[in-house]
Automatic annotation (TrEMBL):
Residue stretches spanning the membrane: none
Cofactor, how bound (note): Binds 2 divalent metal cations per subunit.
Binding annotation for Zn(2+) 2: 143, 176, 205
Modified residues (N6-carboxylysine): 143
Protein name (database record): Phosphotriesterase
SUPFAM superfamilies assigned: Metallo-dependent hydrolases
Family: Belongs to the metallo-dependent hydrolases superfamily. Phosphotriesterase family.
Known cofactor(s): a divalent metal cation
The entry's keywords: Hydrolase, Metal-binding
Length: 320
């Protein structure tokens, strides 16, 4: 069974799934003290409902919202949205930082000034087993992050807590990685050393790499590769993503590929006005409106499309 924001479903009920998306990306402190001029709660909710309805009409049945603490997760807002749409939404736990954690985590925890159990592990397990932020909405997976700085001391702290939560609960781990520095390999080495089953790991943003050897090495370790930034023009071209995807399919790696966008309805980091100019196709309908039709002309048959969009997400989320 997989927890969604509107109740548990079986893996078979997930259907066509976008595995790496965001709905509302914010920052609690900035949102309080420096509100973004483009944020209008009612208008953004209406736009989110409109976009999800459009996805449902295209055949999308489930999206995974990887907005975790560090990116302004608001599960109550997303749960309200989930009640308005037929598209299932899955929530995630984790902590998004590519460098340092809030100072609280430096002083609170085992062996620290305030001797308490690891608060990150307590957060992750509570989100997965009990519910997020006092709700009954449970997380379906764990999100972690490293970038050009690599595995810093604080990033390692997050990965360590995520690995233990994975071992206890069995939920998968998905990452934000930096393909330009081959960062997915460092992530795999650390997670593997911490006892994580690498076949339950998604190395996110792998599709931004044009280095075939790097992608093959990631795949050989057993992980899923996230081709999850279609439409994100400022991190790579869709032409390159399609080329690399087709090459990996030729190598028989179709069981390890996941397709998505890493898009958002609203993000204060890259707000709607900026996206409209610099990444106009960076939307959650881009795969179905442009990329999948293009792949079909290059030999993507219905069975393979079903594997990429239905079966692989199901196996990633359930382990079955």
């Amino acid at each position: 069974m997989v927890p969604t924001l509107t109740g548990e479903v079986t893996g078979a009920q997930l259907g066509t799934t976008l595995v790496h998306e965001h709905l509302f990306v914010g920052d609690p402190q900035l949102d309080l003290d420096l509100p973004h001029p483009e944020w209008d709660s009612e208008a953004v909710m209406a736009e989110a409902e409109r976009q999800l309805q459009g996805l449902a009409e295209l055949g999308v049945e489930t999206i995974v919202d990887l907005t975790v603490p560090g990116l302004g997760r608001d599960v109550r807002r997303v749960a309200e949205l989930a009640r308005r749409t037929s598209v299932r939404i899955l929530a995630a736990t984790g902590w998004y930082t590519s460098t340092v954690l809030p100072h609280f985590f430096h002083l609170n925890g085992p062996g620290r000034l305030v001797q308490v159990p690891d608060p990150l592990l307590r957060l992750f397990l509570g989100d997965i087993q009990d519910g997020i932020a006092g709700t009954k909405v449970r997380a379906a997976l764990i999100k972690v992050c490293s970038d050009k700085a690599g595995i810093t001391e604080d990033v390692a702290q997050v990965f360590t807590a995520a690995a233990e939560a994975h071992r206890i609960t069995g939920v998968p781990i998905t990452t934000h990685s930096d393909p330009s520095s081959r960062g997915g390999l460092e992530q795999q080495r650390l997670l593997g050393s911490l006892g994580v089953d690498l076949s339950r790991v998604v190395i996110g943003h792998s599709g931004d790499s044009t280095e075939l050897g790097y992608l093959q090495e990631l795949a050989q370790a057993g992980s899923f590769l996230g081709f999850d930034r279609f439409g994100m023009a400022h991190t790579g071209s869709d032409e390159d993503r399609i080329t690399m995807l087709l090459k990996l399919l030729e190598f028989g790696l179709e069981d390890q590929l996941l397709l998505s966008h890493d898009a958002a309805v609203f993000s204060r980091i890259t707000p709607p006005s900026w996206r409209a100019v610099h990444a106009p196709h960076w939307r959650m309908d881009h795969l179905h409106r442009r990329i999948l039709p293009r792949l079909r002309t290059q030999g993507l048959d219905p069975a393979l499309e079903h594997r990429l969009m239905v079966e692989n997400p199901r196996r990633m989320l359930t382990g079955a």
